[in-house]
Amino acid sequence: MADHTPRTPHQPTGSGAAAPAALAGITVDDVRAAQKLLSGVSRATAMEGSRYLSELVGAPVHLKCENLQRTGSFKIRGAYVRIAGLSAEERSAGVVAASAGNHAQGVALAASLLGVASTVFMPVGAPLPKVAATREYGAEVRLHGQVVDETLAAAEEYARRTGAVFIHPFDHRDIIAGQGTVGLEILEQCPEVRTVVVGMGGGGLAAGISLAVKALRPDVRVVGVQAAAAACYPPSLAVGRPVAIEPLATMADGIKVGRPGDVPFGIVRELVDEVVTVTENALSSALLLCLERAKLVVEPAGGSPVAALLSSPGSFEGPVVAVLSGGNVDPLLMQRILRHGMVAAGRYLSFRVRLTDRPGALANLLGVLTVADANVLDVGHVRIDPRLGLTEVEVELHLETKGPEHCAEVTAALREAGYDVLAV
């Protein structure tokens, strides 16, 4: 199973006694008010049990399916509450946002529902399905910059120039109150919950959930999950203030944030019990598991809580609720991630062998694989290489297998047949 990077535990000073008090000016009553405001707007998403994860963890595990929310993620909750709170004068100026995907769609739909004009800046390389969806929800989309930081700067400059209200994806009390409604639903749907596991980027969702849950059930443990390549919270929690990092490449672009938000950071520091990080292998394995076992399409960021459960199943007291925060994943990216997940799960085998370049040599090799019951996905030939003799050819094969044990059986069968199996 995928590796689990070191945990970053901390003692939340507000756990229990301070939870009902206002943190960053937000109370559970604000979250309740947001829930009333969102009635008929956002969905009370389903909670599905997972037999596989329950057996793995040794306690009931439930999946909170925000991937089935309107726009495909939880973002509509906070965006609607934020825009609904604007004055008539502010609404008349319109709103602006910057996002590569989920926040863009949440703002676009929320603004349309409230009759407010919206402009959304997206990176030039943003996936076409996300760009199209944002436009269909009613926003004017402007493609600018190669990375989100450049897009964000363009959106902020537009706000200064036009007077449009900038809608931050996580660093605002109304956003956090809206996201906190997920926590209220968790307690309503699974009152016996002992641990809530939620993905974290800037921290808006984790802050909102922890604020709502801890106010009503201070005994419930809240665990935040970050991609190891883009984990801004561990160093920030270590020094007690938000610090910026340079996030590395990660498939979990939905939680790839270089610095915690000022508002959510204070809540996370007080109320989130632990922050863990997960590897890319764990993320892809989680995506594959959600698709195969739960029949749910999730994006890598949305599957990060499942990745944490897969990585360290004995660390979570049940019943556990894992929040699947989003399901907006580009089909081409999904294809690559699923292949990555198959490799991580030991269900994909790649290797090279050298053959004598004569008729029937490849057929003999494929015959061995047929007997071994391995499914050949791809075959490549190399005939011109200084490492090869005049009568040699190197063949690279990619196989679909049934798991790590089958990989070992296939490799053993090839070697027994006289082939020198080389790693790709």
UniProtKB/TrEMBL annotation:
Domain ACT span(s) in chain numbering: 350-424
Keywords: Allosteric enzyme, Lyase, Pyridoxal phosphate
PROSITE patterns (UniProt xref): ACT, DEHYDRATASE_SER_THR
Top-level lineage group: Bacteria
GO molecular function, one term: threonine deaminase activity
Pathway: Amino-acid degradation; L-threonine degradation via propanoate pathway; propanoate from L-threonine: step 1/4
Cofactor(s) named in the record: pyridoxal 5'-phosphate
Pfam families tied to this protein: PALP
Enzyme Commission number, as recorded: 4.3.1.19
Presence of keyword Lyase: yes
UniProt cross-references to Gene3D superfamilies, sorted A to Z: 3.40.50.1100
Family indicated by similarity: Belongs to the serine/threonine dehydratase family.
Subunit structure: In the native structure, TdcB is in a dimeric form, whereas in the TdcB-AMP complex, it exists in a tetrameric form (dimer of dimers).
Protein name (Swiss-Prot/TrEMBL): L-threonine dehydratase catabolic TdcB
